[in-house]
Design goal:
The complex is a heterodimer of chains A (438) and B (537).
Chain A lengths: L1 H37 E7 L7 H20 L7 E7 L5 H14 L4 E4 L3 H14 L3 E3 L12 E3 L8 H11 L4 E7 L2 H16 L7 E6 L7 H10 L6 E6 L5 H10 L9 E3 L4 H4 L11 E4 L8 H14 L8 H20 L4 H7 L4 E3 L5 E3 L7 E2 L2 E5 L5 E6 L4 E2 L13 E4 L5 E5 L4 E2 L5
Parallel strand pairs in A: 1-2, 1-3, 3-4, 4-5, 6-7, 6-8, 8-9, 9-10
Antiparallel strand pairs in A: 10-14, 11-12, 13-16, 14-15, 17-18, 18-19
Helix pairs in contact in A: 2-11, 3-4, 11-12
Chain B lengths: L2 H20 L6 H9 L5 H13 L5 H10 L2 E4 L4 E5 L5 E3 L5 E2 L7 E2 L4 H15 L5 H14 L5 H10 L3 H17 L5 H14 L2 H8 L7 H50 L7 H22 L7 H23 L8 H23 L15 E4 L2 E4 H23 L1 H11 L1 H6 L4 H23 L11 H14 L4 H22 L1 H18 L10 H4 L1
Antiparallel strand pairs in B: 1-2, 1-5, 2-3, 3-4, 6-7
Helix pairs in contact in B: 1-3, 1-5, 2-3, 3-4, 3-5, 4-5, 5-6, 6-8, 7-8, 8-9, 9-10, 9-11, 10-11, 11-15, 11-18, 11-19, 11-20, 12-13, 12-14, 12-18, 13-18, 15-16, 15-18, 16-18, 19-20, 20-21
Classes of the chains: A alpha/beta (438), B mainly alpha (537).
GO cellular component, one term (chain B): plasma membrane
GO molecular function (chain B): transmembrane transporter activity
GO biological process, one term (chain B): amino acid transport
Chain lengths: 438, 537
């Protein structure tokens, strides 16, 4: 009897248990489904500590600002966007770990992140393996086109080459100093520039190439060398790919040794409004920078953006810069692509992105190209006494970004085409996918 | 510079010489039209306007062009009126010279680019050759030397004949020589004399002028020019040695300044303090705060901001140092590995704290006027900020040395480091001395931060870039010996600066590290090793 009862209870409870479990599982699934449907997660992978925090923190704020603005408009596909911010701490291997965490643990639909090329290279395999999307907002050395990455910063032909053209035509520069920090972006850019200058008939002895370590602070010798190199009776200019913290002491030394922009102009590719915020710019009047965006550019979109950004950061002096604009464009493109395919599925969004257009802040419309780069205008600005730039030249229209440089032997036949050829390094000479860089 | 501008400059100089001779009356119509062109906000219009105004002979030409250079020329795009804001703040109409109550609201400064800036400089050079101020005449002669514009020759000749000031006369003679060198119809004798004058000047600009000469010279002149270039080159090569030595001293002074605090905490006390760089950073941020307060409240005191910041930085960094010693390090004496890890962690904490408080971006610390610019000594340029830092470093070193030698605290410090137990039994409160010594080392690091804020970024990472160099200097110089730190810092600075032109900055740094490693193999205790019982303690 007892056994029977027990058995009954046991069977009953087993049945009940099964039902309950099933119900619970269903319920949980439904619940978690409902929760997942509430928001779309957006990963932010920018260093908030360490050396690169100086540049990257602003980009994190930019994405948070854009997400807030988008949510005010009702989010995307009727869902709110939810930022997931991680701190890779300027540590390149940690970038890969944090990227993996964002994609697998937090299940983000898209990641906005990275600054240095080495951090991008470090996360590439993760994005490929887990098939997610990265928007990379910084000007870089090119020679890359990946299916999972969208490059909203400038390729060399959207920044370096037009700047050199400007100096050659408008300033009649005949002698060139290519000065950079010793890592992959300056080295590749300078290789491209050297090939380009030589193709324009500049002789080897009229090119001086100089590399310095990260954070170099004693520029006396190099500035004196530049001065000496510039006194050979030909107009000389410095093309600077000096990165980050080293710029402030470099410009201070230039100012103190009395090198004026009218004698030897310096055109920089990594110095923007943020970097100038730490320098007294009066001695730098007239030195140049090449970017696709300047805060001083007058357009209704830009004025609106600056106002909203300064209100968001509660700082009426907060500056804007080029990589921020790249994030603005990239973010809008992603939103449009998601709305077009009505899904955040990476494959669908990746296929939808090429061809998407978004307004840039300088009054034009940028377009995502099949090689995952975008079209951008190029501006040359001169440093003004108030730390802003005065645009002295711009390209007549928008320039399409080249993933592979036409100046370099190894890459001049390659194109990236993720629409027709489904290939990032298609060799147009032998009509085959693959080649150098694959 | 466009060719038609040069034509206009030529006309301008003629006009000036005429104006000087006949006091020609100003032309009214074309001048006003030219001035109005500044309002078009178009670089080529501005270029034309500069030329036309400069050649007008109008007495307002000089005020207009110099206002343009200083950004004091503004234009109203609607009414096409152009205004000069004078140095005393009064506004006049640029076309008529009539006083105006105030600038219209939509008037904006006339923009310049580098090409126009050069045009302005050249125009001012022409306009100021006859200025009553000798310094301005010299500057004008220099700009003619650079542009070697043929049309300036009659004015220079006239000015040279009347000139009484010796240095202005020399500048005019050089400018005249530069013109003659490039003048196609100058005689061979004239050109040979010109080469000699330029050779005597002997600097980089003289060399630029000579190397820029074309190939169509008479053979004698070409030979003279070549030998002048060679002699200037060898002269400059000699000066570049002097220059390297100076740069070495300057780099050495920076190294010494960064390392001298560490020489106390690590050298004298034996604490491996990885947070040393952050003390430097705290000093730099103290300077920033001081300058912010001064900027907003007492702008007149700006030139004294560094003098005010030095004691404050010492107190701030020193206080933090005492706190660190009392809170962490005193529990870790005799455990170097734990000290290293604890202070390393502390350095990250301090960095992030500053990053949170002040933001991750660089903060602007201005150079007071007495630390900006440079002067020429022979053929080398010496910048004031580097010179002051060198003097400052030596002063800090001497004061520190005197303190250790002649004050009671210094005596106690030396006693404690030489023999702790003996000192304790003589009644010295050793733990108090430990805290004060650590505070002193940290405070000096803070002072270093004040000086380094003048040449480097003020960012949370400031300290990191100096910590390795500082340890290198102290270890190389000999642990526990201040003189060793001094000699070590200057040796490394000078060696680095002589290697850099040969090997490049990156390889130069590596070479120095390799040399130090080899040296330490040979002399593990550094240049000036401590002898005696203290070594074993």
């Amino acid at each position: 009897m007892v056994t029977k009862l027990t058995h009954d209870i046991a069977t009953l409870s087993r049945r009940r248990w099964l039902a309950a479990t099933a119900g619970l599982i269903l319920g949980l699934a439904a619940f978690s489904n409902a929760k997942a449907q509430e928001t779309i997660k957006v990963g932010v992978l920018h260093s908030l500590s360490g050396t690169m925090a100086i540049s990257e923190t602003t980009l994190k704020d930019t994405i948070l600002f854009l997400i807030e603005e988008q949510n005010k408009k009702g989010g995307v596909l009727g869902k709110k966007l939810e930022p997931v911010v991680v701190d890779p701490a300027s540590n390149w291997p940690l970038f890969a770990e944090k990227a993996r965490e964002l994609i697998t643990k937090d299940k983000v639909s898209v990641v906005f992140g990275c600054w240095t090329s080495v951090s991008r290279k470090s996360v590439l395999p993760v994005f490929k393996e887990l098939n997610s999307i990265l928007f990379y907002p910084v000007q870089y050395e090119g020679e890359e086109s990946e299916r999972n990455v969208f490059y909203t910063g400038a390729a060399p032909n959207q920044q370096a080459i037009p700047a050199v053209d400007y100096l050659m035509k408008d300033e009649k520069v005949k002698r060139w100093v290519l000065a950079g920090t010793d890592y992959v972006y300056p080295r590749t850019t300078n290789k491209i520039l050297e090939a380009y200058l030589k193709s324009k008939g500049v002789k080897q002895e009229d090119i001086m190439i100089n590399y310095t370590p990260f954070g170099h602070s004693d520029w006396q010798t190099i500035v004196a060398d530049i001065k000496k190199f510039g006194s050979a009776g030909k107009k000389t200019a410095v093309v600077s790919t000096i990165n980050g913290d080293a710029n402030v002491p470099f410009y201070k030394e230039l100012g103190n040794q009395g090198i004026k922009a009218t004698d030897i102009p310096v055109v920089a590719f990594s110095v923007g409004e943020e970097e100038l915020a730490g320098i007294d710019t009066k001695p730098l009047l007239g030195h140049l920078a090449a970017w696709n965006y300047f805060q001083s550019i007058k357009s209704p979109e830009n004025e609106k953006f600056i106002k909203a950004w300064q209100a968001y950061t509660k700082n009426p002096k907060r500056v804007t810069n080029d990589p921020m604009e790249a994030h603005v464009i990239g973010f809008e493109m992603w939103v449009k692509a998601v709305e077009k395919v009505k899904s955040t599925d990476p494959d669908k969004v990746i296929d939808a992105l090429p061809g998407i257009e978004a307004k840039n802040l300088t009054g034009g419309t940028s377009k995502m190209l099949p090689n995952h780069h975008i079209t951008k205008p190029v501006f040359i600005g001169e440093i003004k006494a108030n730390g802003q730039f005065d645009v002295v030249w711009k390209t007549p229209g928008l320039v399409a970004g080249d993933a592979w440089s036409k100046e370099l032997e190894g890459s001049k036949d390659l194109i990236g085409d993720w629409v027709g050829k489904k290939c990032g390094n298609y060799n147009t000479k032998i009509n085959k996918c693959g080649g150098q860089g694959s | 510079m466009s060719a038609n501008f040069l034509d206009r400059l030529r006309a301008l100089l003629l006009a000036i010489s005429l104006a000087v001779a006949f006091a020609a009356p100003a032309l009214a119509g074309p001048f006003e039209d030219a001035v109005a062109k500044f309002a078009n906000d178009d670089f080529s219009d501005t270029d034309e306007a500069i030329g036309a105004v400069a050649t007008s002979g109008n007495p307002l030409a000089f005020p207009i062009i110099s206002a343009l250079q200083d950004g004091r020329l503004s234009a109203d795009p609607d009414t096409k009126k152009v205004f000069i804001t004078q140095a005393d703040g009064r506004v006049i109409d640029a076309a008529t010279g009539a006083a105006v109550d105030k600038l219209p609201d939509n008037a904006a400064a006339v923009r310049l680019n580098n090409r126009l800036r050069r045009a302005v400089e050249a125009a001012l050079g022409g306009l100021t050759l006859l200025s009553p101020d000798p310094a301005k005449r010299i500057a004008a002669a220099q700009s003619v030397f650079k542009s070697h514009e043929e049309s300036a020759l009659p004015v220079i000749d006239g000015a040279l004949a009347k000139e009484t000031n010796k240095s202005v006369k020399a500048a005019f003679a050089e400018a005249r020589a530069a013109i003659l060198l490039y003048k196609s119809d100058a005689t061979e004798v004239e050109k040979l004399e010109a080469v000699a004058v330029v050779k005597a000047r002997g600097d980089q600009e003289a060399m630029a002028l000579l190397t820029g000469l074309g190939n169509d010279l008479p053979p004698n002149v070409a030979r003279a020019a070549a030998s002048a270039i060679a002699s200037i080159q060898s002269n400059l090569a000699m000066w570049s040695m002097v220059q390297n030595a100076w740069y070495g001293l300057s780099l050495g002074s920076v190294l010494l300044l960064a390392a001298i605090g560490l020489a106390i905490t690590f050298g004298v006390m034996g604490v491996i303090n990885m947070a040393h760089g952050e003390m430097v950073m705290l000093g730099a941020y103290t300077t920033f705060v001081v300058q912010e307060v001064i900027r907003s409240n007492y702008p007149g005191l700006f030139d004294y901001s560094l003098l005010i910041a030095v004691p404050l930085a010492f107190l701030v960094a020193g206080a933090v140092g005492v706190l660190i010693e009392r809170g962490i390090i005193r529990f870790l004496y005799g455990r170097p590995l734990e000290t290293l890890l604890a202070t390393w962690g502390l350095s990250l904490v301090l960095q992030q704290a500053v990053r949170t408080a002040f933001g991750p971006t660089n903060r602007e610390v201005g150079n007071p006027s007495w630390m900006s610019g440079a002067f020429e000594l022979g053929q080398i340029t010496i910048t004031y900020n580097r010179l002051w830092i060198l003097c400052f470093t030596l002063a800090v070193f001497v004061i520190l040395l005197a303190m250790l030698r002649y004050t009671a605290l210094g005596l106690e410090m030396r006693a404690v480091t030489q023999n702790r137990r003996m000192a304790a039994s003589m009644g010295i409160a050793t733990s108090r001395v430990d805290a004060l010594t650590f505070g002193l080392g940290s405070g000096i690091a803070g002072i270093a931060g004040v000086a380094l804020s003048q040449i480097d970024n003020v960012s949370p990472n400031l300290g990191q870039s100096y910590i390795i160099d500082s340890f290198m200097v102290v270890v190389f110089g000999g642990v526990g010996n201040l003189w060793g730190t001094l000699v070590g810092a200057f040796t490394l600075g000078i060696a680095n600066k002589f290697l850099e032109p040969v090997a490049g900055a990156v390889l130069g740094k590596i070479a120095i590290l390799v040399l130090i490693i080899l040296f330490i193999q040979k002399r593990p205790r550094g240049l000036f090793a401590l002898k005696g019982r203290a070594v074993e303690a």
